[in-house]
Design a protein that fits this description.
By secondary structure, the chain is α/β, with parallel strands linked by helices. The protein has helices at about 20-30, 50-55, 65-75, 95-100, 130-135, 140, 160-170, 175, 185-190, 210-215, 235-240, 245-260, 360-365, 370-390, 400-410, 415-435, 445-450, and strands at about 10-15, 35-40, 80, 100-105, 110, 125, 150-155, 195-200, 225-230, 270-275, 275-285, 290-300, 305-315, 320, 325, 345, 350, 355. Strand 1 (about 10-15), helix 1 and strand 2 (about 35-40) form a beta-alpha-beta unit.
């Protein structure tokens, strides 16, 4: 018999992850009127919004304005935010299936890809992901004592994240004061000795993945200037004619402007380098980064980077790799190790009735925040089609009260959306007293201490 979902017995959906794709999935379930639905949005952190809070650059506040829409979704009485709940332990895969008609995984891609070169594990070598988490006040990274002793930093990769970390390192604390960067990072950056930052792309300027707006910002910094080697951005007529993407065309134009730019002798320099690949991170003799050896490349007829056997050593004491995010397996959920995603067919988890996925863990790390709206909506459309067709397995214990009792029995201190609103108001008020947009609380225990009542 096909289940009939009613306002008294709505379709109950658990969304695992409260970043953009998770909240957009909840929004899509609310907006449709065919099937009455009730959604519980889980996150292992007390705070919602995922990458918008902990991944978007702190000086790009306009991008974070999407949280206004997220707030509306999470404040809807048909939705609950259950923060500080770890999927796999606090709520197991089996328990989720017992309590919900459908489970949708929207956990993003929290790990990073490695370079696979000697010296990658030296002190001072880390992923850009870790560095972003540190300056954005992620509770997992907040306690890390990151000492910025480096005068030279090499950032491997030419996507927007590589530009973000480079820009944060290049900015003055006066420029960063207007951002919501974590206080501990602002203090550390205030005494940073960084003078040279190298952004390294293994291919040419026409293949770089960053966007023009982010690139232009390097020409607008108060104490840092962009440096580009003309020969590294030179293109043949055929190569130039082959560029069809407008963003890439504009990127080349901006890079040419930077290359023609007269040096201003600013205290910091951002070197945008192309056709170079890191081959070894050198030890300074004390187990720390002492330099980065790179090889010059050329492009073959297929546009692939090929080493030329010419090398140079960059005098860097810190190396940040920014060569892509990668998904992490969830307990009890299928995982494609090669691609770093949950194997799925248009959002339906392969071989699993009632299980779905959206966002980066569905398709891989691509697109911007808004890309996840359509992605999540598409998945939800399949979920609803399955619900109407009676293809969902159904939940034996499908009430909010049963979920609450389960979590309480495990001693889980759920952080609700009302609790988050208390923390949010506190951060905004503290920021206002400092003349800043927000003063983030960065330690989990401090977050959990700020709650309703």
């Amino acid at each position: 018999m096909t289940p009939i979902y009613t306002p008294e017995r709505p379709l109950r959906v658990a969304v695992i992850g409260s970043g953009p794709s998770g909240v957009y999935a909840a929004e899509a379930l609310l907006k449709q009127t065919d099937v009455p639905a009730e959604v519980d949005v889980y996150d292992r952190l007390p705070t919602p919004y995922g990458l918008v809070r902990y991944g978007v650059a702190p000086d790009h506040l306009t991008i974070k304005s999407v949280t206004k829409g997220f707030e509306k979704t999470l404040a809807d009485p048909r939705v609950r935010f259950l923060g500080n709940v770890e999927f796999g332990t606090d709520l197991t895969h089996e328990e989720a299936l017992a309590h919900y008609d459908a489970v949708l995984y929207a956990v993003g891609a929290s790990s990073d890809r490695r370079l696979g070169i000697p010296g990658e594990d030296l002190a001072g070598s880390m992923s850009a992901t870790e560095f972003v988490a540190w300056y954005n006040g992620h509770p997992d990274a907040a306690a890390r004592e990151l000492l910025l002793h480096a005068s030279g930093v090499a950032v491997v990769g030419v996507g927007n994240v590589a530009l973000d970390v480079s820009r944060i390192l290049a900015k003055t604390t006066q420029e960063l004061h207007r951002s919501d960067i974590a206080a501990h990072a602002l203090t550390a950056l205030d005494s940073s000795p960084v003078q040279d930052i190298w952004i390294l792309g293994r291919r040419g300027p026409a293949q770089a993945a960053f966007t023009t707006k982010e690139l232009r910002e390097f020409g607008e910094l108060s104490d840092a200037e962009p440096v580009v080697i003309p020969t590294e951005i030179a293109l043949t007529d055929a190569e130039e004619a082959a560029i069809t993407d407008n963003t890439k065309k504009k990127n080349v134009e901006v890079l040419r402007e930077f290359a023609a730019h007269e040096p201003e002798d600013k205290p910091r320099r951002v070197h945008l380098r192309f056709l170079v690949s890191p081959v070894e991170i050198l030890d300074d003799g004390h187990g720390r980064v002492g330099g980065l050896k790179v090889e010059r490349n050329r492009l073959d007829e297929n546009g692939n980077a090929v080493g030329t056997g010419e090398y140079e050593v960059l005098p860097a004491q810190m190396v940040l790799r920014s060569v892509g995010y990668r998904g992490v397996a969830l307990p009890g959920v299928p995982f494609d190790e090669k691609r770093g995603v949950i194997p799925n067919a248009e959002g339906r988890v392969e071989g699993r009735a009632g299980e779905y996925t959206a966002g980066w863990i569905k398709r891989g790390p691509s697109g911007v925040v808004g890309t996840n709206r359509k992605d999540a909506t598409d998945t939800v459309a399949h979920l609803l089609a399955d619900a109407k067709a009676g293809a969902l397995p159904g939940a034996a214990q499908s009430t909010r009260e049963a979920v609450d009792a389960l979590l309480a029995s495990k001693g889980v201190h759920v952080y609700t959306f009302a609790d988050w609103q208390v923390l949010d108001a506190h951060e905004l008020a503290e920021g206002k007293t400092l003349g800043r947009p927000r003063a983030k609380v960065v330690h989990r225990e401090a977050m959990l201490g700020l709650r309703r009542g």
